[in-house]
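Input.
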Amino acid sequence: MHTTLTTLVDRLDRLVASHLRVIPWSSPVPSFGDLSRSTVASLGLNPSNREFVDDRGCELDGEFRRFHTLGSLKLESWSDIDATHLRMVVESCSEYFFRNPYDRWFRRLDAVISATGTSFYNTFLPACHLDLIPFATACKWTQLEPAQRARLLRIAGDTLALLLRQSPVRLLVINGQSVVDHFQELAGVTLERIDMPDWSLPRQSGSGVAGVAYRGVVEALSGLPLGNKVMVLGYNHNLQSSFGVTNEVICAIRQWIGIQAAEAFD
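Output.
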């Protein structure tokens, strides 16, 4: 991962200079959890600013720190980073779920991932989380201008391929329709779309929000061969933000993930 991390650090200045609202002092986040030991990974859009700041916008520090920053590494600029600093950043990623994880976001996702027999919080059978864009922005993804989102995807769009080809990941679980759409665009693939009536989200008026599953197998992303086949499973509901996601729907998604995962590890 060190080689990929070096590439990501080199891109930071370019992203900041492009006014893409990337937090300039925050380190890239190649993974949440130990990618080198995970056969299962979930996929999101980009790290939340709350991985680096508290609700007042102040940098997390001490026992509350989640990832390294220029300040914690005692660097003036990312151009000053060396092998020791890179190792520290990788360690903060690998140990993420055993320090101060953002449980409010990850616990709900782990409830689905655990159907594979792995877990973010399992030392012996770990899963990890990856993002299409491994850089935290000062605002939510949806608050970025369309041109900013497009440029971030262009600059960092090959990151997922670079990470997966160095890992034992064989199953990728995509959380939410936006991530599914961006993944398909970056990968140049069309996943199989499956209507899932049991996943419908109720609404007080109207017919509710239909549930949709996605399934496919990829051997290359962004034009880069992965070296192995990776099963891709997804669902249209964002478990953390979709209004009205019920426990029943989460259980139904979990069950489907478990059944499909059995094929990936046959």
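The longest strand covers residues 224-235.
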